[in-house]
C-alpha cells in the first residue's frame, strides 16, 4: 500500500526533528555529541523527505488523518508537489545550515547553544508540518507553532535589542495570523464546508464574489510570513538573531512557509481559474508589485548588511505572491520554482554575512572595502549568489524569473513584466556594490588586510556548497520544473 | 446498585457531611485527607452521572421521596452534568495542591478550618448546579458564597479581609436580587420547581411581575458571575485569597453562576421570551464585548500577576457570555465549551502562581525575573497556560475561539468575529509581558534554582496537560458542550 507508506513517512518527517530536539536537549554537556545528533537528525530528515518524493513519483499522492479535531475536520497530511518542493528545500538546506552553524556558533562563543539547536529542530519539525498539511486547519496549526518555536531563536541574545526585535516579530506574525488568517480559515470552513486542499479549489460556486474577494485579502495579509507590505517589518526585526537563524529560517523555512501558504491557498483553496476572476486579486497583485519595488529601494539605503538582505528578501518574497495573484499556470510554476531558487541564493548571502561578522567583526557594508582579499571564498560565493538573485545566467535565479515573466504575459499583464525587469536592475544596484567593494575597494580607516582570514572551515564549506547549488540549479532545473508543473497537473 | 440511584443526592451530601468531620478531626493532615477523599468521591460521582446522562437522558431525583413540584427535585441533564464534572474535577485536583500550599500560606493550626469551609463551598457549588428547584438554588448559592467569603479572608495579606468584605456586600446584593426575582415568580406561578415554572410561565409573559422578576434575576446573576461592569469584587478577591482558593474559585465559582444564567434564561424563561421579547441577547453581547476589551486592557497594566489573571478572567467571562448571548446552538456550545476550557486553563495558571508564591513569596512582576531558570517547570506551565489564554492552536483556548468565531460567522456577524480575534491579541500583550520577564530578564543576585515541590507541580501540570489535551482531542469536551447546548435550547 503506497498510500499508507507515504502517510507514515510524512509522520516521520515531523517526528524525526521533534525526536532530535528531545535528544539534543539532553546533550547540553557534550557539545560534540550534540552537534553530531543535529547533523544525523538533519540527514535522516532529508533522506525521509527524499523517500517521500520517490514514493510520490512512483505511486502518486497519499494522505493520512491522525484524528479529528472538529467533527469532519482533522489533523490531516497529504503529499503534493508544491509541499514536496518546500520540504525538500527546507530539509536539504538544514544539513548545510547545521554544518555552517557548528563553525559559526562556536567561533562566536554564543551562549545557550543547546536551546538554539533544540528550537531549530522544532522549527524544522513544524516547517515539515506546514509542507505536508492536508488541509488549511493543519497548516494553520503548524504555521503558529513555527512562529512560536522561532521566537526564542530571534531573542537568542537576550538583550534589549533582541527583546524589541522579538516583540515586533511576534506582534506582527501573531496579529496577522490571528486576526486575518484565522478569520479567513473559519470563514472558508463556514462557506465551503471543507478545508481540504483540493485540486481546482473548494470555493468555486460556494463563495459569492464579495466573500471571495474579502477572503483573498484576509489570506494574503493574514500570512504575515509572506511579508507583503505593510506587514513586513517583522523580517528586518528578526535580523537580531544569530546568522544561521537568519539564513535558514528567515531566508528559507519561515518566509518560504509564508509564500508557500499563499501559493497553496491560491492553487488548492481558490483554484487558479476561480482566482483569476476574484476582484481583489488584481489589487493584491499591485500591492505585491509595489512591495517588490519599494523593498528594493529601501534595501539600497541600508548599510547594515543583514538588514539590506532582509529587505531584499521582502522584495523577493513578493515575486511569489505576485505570481500567485497572476493566477496563470506558468506563473504558478515560476512561483514554485522561485521558492527553491531564492532559497539557495539568499541562504548563501546570509551565510556570507555571518562569516564576515565572525571572521572580521564587520556588520556594515561601508566597512567592507577590500575584505575580498581576506575572504576570497566567502566573497566569491557572495558574488555568485547575488547574480542568482538578480536572475542572470548561468545561475538558477534566471529560471524562476523567466517563468513568472511568462506567466505575466500569459495573464496579459505587461506592466508586471516591467516590474520584474526594473526589480532586477534594482537588485544589481543594491547587491553588486558589495562584492565590488570587497574585491576592489580600499579598506576603511586605513587598516591593512593581509593574508587569508576566512570563517571556520565548516562555515566556508557550507557557503561554497550552497553557492554551487545556485549554479547547479541553472544547469539541472529539470526535476524542479517537473515537480512545479505537476502542481497543476493533478 | 442501590448507591448509584442515590448518586444525585450523594453528590451534595457527601462533602456537606464531611465538612464538620474536618472540624472534629482538627489535625491538618487528617482534615486534608478527608477533604481529598470527599473531593475525589464527588468527582467520581459526577463522572458517573455524566456518563449516565449522555447514555440515557436526564435523571430526576426526589429528595426524601417528596415528589416535585412539592418536594425538592435534583435534576441532572447534559448541561449540568457537564458543569458538575468540571467543578468536582477542579476541586479534586486543587485538593492535591492544597496540602503544601495551605500549610505554607495558612498554617497547620488553622488548616482544618480551611478544609471544612472548602468542603462547604464545594457542596454549595455542586448543589447550585444539580438542583432543579429555584429556591433551593438560592440556598446552595448562599452556602457557597458565605463559605467563599471565609476562604478569601484566610489570605495572608490583610487586604484579603477588605476583599472578602467587598465580595460579601456585592455577593449579598446579587443573591438578594436573585431571591427577589424568584419570589416574584413564585407570586405569579405558585411554584418553585424549574420545569414547573417554565410550564406555568407560558402565556404569562406579558405580566409585569414576570418582567420585573426577569430584570432582578438578570442583574443578580450577572453580579455573581462578574459580568462587566459588575465585576468589581472579583479582582481583589482573586488577588488576595490564598493560592489554592484562587485556583479553585476562578475555575468554579463564576462558572457555576454562568450555569445559573443558562438555566434561568433558557430553561425557566425560554429562549423565545429571553431573547425574543426581552433584549437580553443585545445586552449580553454588548457587555461581553466591553468586558473582552476593557478587562483585557486593564489586565495589561497590572503589576500583580494574580490581579492580572483576575482581570483576564473578567475578559474570558466575556467570551463565554458572548457565546451564550448569540442564543444559537453553536453559540451556546462555544460558551459552554469555553466555560470548561477556561476553567482548566485559568485553574492551571492560578496553581502555577501558587507554586511561585510558595517559593518566591510574591506575585509582583518584578520578582518574576529569571524565573525560567529558577523554576523551569513552573515557568513552562505558565507559558503553556498563557498560550491557552491567547488561543494558540493545540490548546483548549483555540478550540473555544474556533467555535465562537464560527458561531458569529454563522449568524453573519463578521464584525463580532473580528472583535473576538482582536481582543485575543490583548491577551498576547499581557501574557508576553510575563514571559519576557521570566525568560529574558536575569534573576537577581544569589537566586539559585528553586523549583516548587512535586506536590504543587503535579496538580498544576495535570490542569495544564488537560488544557492541551482538550485542545487536541475535543470529542469529549465539544461533544458534551454540544449536548448541553441542544438540551438548553430544546433542540434535541
Account of the 3D structure:
The complex is a heterodimer of chains A (490) and B (492). Chain A has 490 residues and is mainly α. Chain A has one domain (2-489). Chain A has helices at 2-25, 31-59, 81-107, 113-132, 136-154, 160-192, 209-222, 234-237, 243-270, 272-276, 279-300, 305-326, 329-360, 376-390, 397-410, 414-431, 433-440, 457-475, 478-489; strands at 63-70, 73-78. The mean pLDDT of chain A is 86. Helix content of chain B is 79%, strand content 2%. Chain B has helices spanning 2-5, 7-25, 28-56, 78-105, 108-130, 134-153, 159-189, 194-201, 208-224, 233-240, 243-268, 271-277, 280-300, 305-326, 329-360, 371-374, 376-390, 396-410, 414-439, 454-472, 475-489, and strands spanning 59-62, 73-76. Chain B has a two-stranded antiparallel ribbon. In chain B, helix 4 (78-105) packs parallel to helix 15, helix 5 (108-130) runs antiparallel to helix 6 (134-153) and helix 13 runs antiparallel to helix 14 (305-326). The two termini of chain B are 29 Å apart. The model of chain B has no long low-confidence stretch (mean pLDDT 88). The A-B interface holds A 67-71, 140-141, 144-145, 148, 152, 155, 158, 162-163, 166-167, 170-171, 174-175, 178-179, 182-183, 186-187, 189-190 and B 387, 390-394, 399, 401-402, 405-406, 409-410, 414, 417-418, 421-422, 424-425, 428, 432, 436, 439-440, 472-475, 478.
Short description:
The complex is a heterodimer of chains A (490) and B (492). By secondary structure, chain A is mostly helical. Chain A has helices at 2-25, 31-59, 81-107, 113-132, 136-154, 160-192, 209-222, 234-237, 243-270, 272-276, 279-300, 305-326, 329-360, 376-390, 397-410, 414-431, 433-440, 457-475, 478-489, and strands spanning 63-70, 73-78.
Amino acid at each position: 500500500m503506497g498510500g499508507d507508506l507515504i502517510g507514515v513517512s510524512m509522520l516521520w518527517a515531523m517526528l524525526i526533528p521533534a525526536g532530535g530536539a528531545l535528544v539534543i536537549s539532553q546533550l547540553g554537556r557534550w557539545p560534540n555529541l550534540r552537534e553530531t545528533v543535529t547533523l544525523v537528525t538533519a540527514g535522516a530528515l532529508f533522506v525521509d523527505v527524499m523517500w517521500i518524493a520517490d514514493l510520490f513519483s512512483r505511486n502518486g499522492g497519499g494522505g493520512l488523518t491522525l484524528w479529528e479535531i472538529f467533527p469532519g475536520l482533522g489533523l490531516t497530511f497529504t503529499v503534493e508537489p508544491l509541499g514536496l518542493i518546500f520540504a525538500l528545500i527546507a530539509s536539504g538546506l538544514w544539513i548545510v545550515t547545521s554544518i555552517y552553524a557548528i563553525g559559526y556558533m562556536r567561533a562566536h562563543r554564543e551562549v545557550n547553544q543547546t536551546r538554539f539547536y533544540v528550537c531549530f529542530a522544532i522549527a524544522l519539525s513544524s516547517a515539515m508540518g506546514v509542507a505536508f498539511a492536508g488541509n488549511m486547519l493543519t497548516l494553520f496549526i503548524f504555521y503558529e507553532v513555527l512562529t512560536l518555536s522561532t521566537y526564542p531563536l530571534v531573542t537568542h541574545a537576550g538583550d534589549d535589542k533582541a527583546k524589541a526585535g522579538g516583540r515586533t516579530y511576534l506582534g506582527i506574525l501573531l496579529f496577522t495570523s490571528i486576526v486575518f488568517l484565522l478569520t479567513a480559515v473559519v470563514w472558508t470552513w463556514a462557506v465551503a464546508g471543507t478545508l481540504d486542499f483540493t485540486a481546482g479549489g473548494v470555493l468555486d460556486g460556494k463563495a459569492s464574489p464579495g466573500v471571495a474577494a474579502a477572503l483573498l485579502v484576509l489570506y494574503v495579509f493574514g500570512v504575515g510570513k509572506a511579508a507583503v507590505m505593510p506587514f513586513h517589518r517583522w523580517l528586518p526585526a528578526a535580523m537580531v538573531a544569530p546568522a544561521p537563524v537568519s539564513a535558514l529560517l528567515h531566508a528559507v523555512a519561515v518566509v518560504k512557509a509564508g509564500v508557500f501558504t499563499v501559493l497553496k491557498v491560491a492553487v488548492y483553496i481558490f483554484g487558479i481559474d476561480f482566482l483569476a476572476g476574484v476582484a481583489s486579486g488584481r489589487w493584491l497583485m499591485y500591492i505585491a508589485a509595489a512591495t517588490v519595488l519599494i523593498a528594493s529601494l529601501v534595501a539600497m539605503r541600508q548599510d547594515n548588511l543583514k538588514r539590506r538582505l532582509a529587505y531584499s528578501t521582502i522584495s523577493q518574497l513578493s515575486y511569489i505572491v505576485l505570481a500567485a495573484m497572476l493566477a496563470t499556470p506558468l506563473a504558478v510554476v515560476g512561483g514554485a520554482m522561485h521558492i527553491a531558487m531564492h532559497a539557495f541564493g539568499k541562504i548563501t548571502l546570509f551565510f556570507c554575512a555571518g562569516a564576515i561578522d565572525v571572521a572580521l567583526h564587520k556588520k556594515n557594508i561601508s566597512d567592507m572595502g577590500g575584505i575580498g582579499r581576506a575572504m576570497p571564498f566567502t566573497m566569491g560565493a557572495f558574488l555568485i549568489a547575488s547574480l542568482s538573485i538578480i536572475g542572470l545566467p548561468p545561475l538558477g535565479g534566471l529560471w524562476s524569473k523567466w517563468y513568472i515573466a511568462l506567466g505575466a504575459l500569459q495573464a496579459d499583464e505587461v506592466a508586471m513584466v516591467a516590474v520584474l525587469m526594473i526589480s532586477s536592475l534594482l537588485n544589481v544596484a543594491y547587491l553588486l556594490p558589495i562584492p565590488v567593494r570587497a574585491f576592489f575597494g580600499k579598506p576603511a580607516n586605513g587598516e591593512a588586510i593581509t593574508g587569508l582570514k576566512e570563517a571556520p572551515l565548516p562555515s566556508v564549506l557550507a557557503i561554497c556548497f550552497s553557492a554551487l547549488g545556485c549554479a547547479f540549479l541553472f544547469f539541472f532545473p529539470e526535476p524542479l520544473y517537473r515537480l512545479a508543473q505537476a502542481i497543476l497537473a493533478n | 446498585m442501590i448507591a448509584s440511584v442515590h448518586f444525585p443526592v450523594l453528590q451534595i451530601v457527601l462533602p456537606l457531611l464531611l465538612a464538620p468531620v474536618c472540624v472534629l478531626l482538627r489535625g491538618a493532615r487528617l482534615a486534608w485527607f478527608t477533604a481529598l477523599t470527599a473531593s475525589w468521591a464527588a468527582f467520581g460521582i459526577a463522572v458517573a452521572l455524566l456518563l449516565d446522562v449522555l447514555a440515557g437522558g436526564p435523571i430526576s431525583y426526589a429528595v426524601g421521596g417528596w415528589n416535585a413540584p412539592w418536594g425538592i427535585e435534583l435534576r441532572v441533564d447534559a448541561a449540568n452534568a457537564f458543569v458538575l464534572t468540571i467543578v468536582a474535577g477542579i476541586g479534586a485536583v486543587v485538593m492535591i495542591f492544597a496540602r503544601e500550599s495551605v500549610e505554607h500560606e495558612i498554617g497547620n493550626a488553622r488548616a482544618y478550618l480551611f478544609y471544612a469551609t472548602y468542603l462547604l463551598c464545594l457542596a454549595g457549588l455542586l448543589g447550585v448546579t444539580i438542583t432543579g428547584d429555584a429556591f433551593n438554588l438560592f440556598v446552595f448559592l448562599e452556602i457557597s458564597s458565605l463559605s467563599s467569603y471565609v476562604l478569601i479572608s484566610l489570605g495572608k495579606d490583610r487586604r484579603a479581609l477588605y476583599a472578602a468584605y467587598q465580595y460579601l456586600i456585592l455577593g449579598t446584593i446579587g443573591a438578594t436580587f436573585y431571591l427577589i426575582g424568584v419570589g416574584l415568580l413564585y407570586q405569579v406561578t405558585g411554584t418553585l420547581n424549574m420545569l414547573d415554572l417554565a410550564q406555568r410561565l407560558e402565556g404569562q409573559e406579558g405580566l409585569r411581575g414576570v418582567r420585573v422578576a426577569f430584570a432582578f434575576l438578570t442583574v443578580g446573576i450577572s453580579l455573581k458571575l462578574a459580568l462587566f461592569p459588575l465585576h468589581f469584587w472579583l479582582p481583589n478577591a482573586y488577588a488576595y485569597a490564598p493560592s489554592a482558593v484562587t485556583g479553585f474559585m476562578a475555575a468554579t465559582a463564576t462558572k457555576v453562576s454562568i450555569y445559573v444564567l443558562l438555566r434561568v434564561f433558557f430553561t425557566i424563561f425560554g429562549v423565545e421570551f429571553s431573547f425574543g421579547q426581552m433584549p437580553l441577547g443585545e445586552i449580553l453581547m454588548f457587555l461581553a464585548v466591553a468586558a473582552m476589551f476593557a478587562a483585557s486592557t486593564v489586565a495589561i497594566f497590572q503589576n500583580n500577576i494574580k490581579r492580572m489573571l483576575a482581570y483576564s478572567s473578567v475578559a474570558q467571562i466575556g467570551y463565554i457570555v458572548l457565546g451564550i448571548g448569540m442564543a444559537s446552538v453553536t453559540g451556546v456550545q462555544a460558551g459552554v465549551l469555553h466555560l470548561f476550557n477556561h476553567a482548566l486553563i485559568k485553574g492551571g495558571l492560578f496553581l502555577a502562581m501558587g507554586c511561585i508564591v510558595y517559593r518566591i513569596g510574591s506575585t509582583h512582576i518584578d520578582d518574576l525575573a529569571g524565573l525560567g531558570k529558577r523554576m523551569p517547570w513552573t515557568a513552562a506551565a505558565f507559558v503553556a497556560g498563557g498560550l491557552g489564554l491567547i488561543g494558540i492552536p493545540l490548546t483548549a483556548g483555540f478550540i473555544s475561539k474556533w467555535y465562537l468565531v464560527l458561531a458569529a460567522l454563522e449568524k453573519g456577524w463578521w464584525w463580532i468575529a473580528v472583535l473576538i480575534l482582536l481582543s485575543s491579541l490583548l491577551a498576547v500583550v499581557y501574557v508576553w509581558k510575563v514571559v519576557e520577564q521570566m525568560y529574558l530578564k536575569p534573576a537577581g543576585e544569589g537566586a539559585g534554582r528553586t523549583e516548587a515541590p512535586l506536590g504543587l507541580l503535579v496538580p498544576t501540570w495535570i490542569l495544564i496537560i488537560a488544557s492541551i489535551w482538550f485542545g487536541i482531542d475535543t470529542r469529549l469536551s465539544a461533544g458534551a458542550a454540544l449536548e448541553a447546548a441542544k438540551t438548553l435550547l430544546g433542540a434535541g
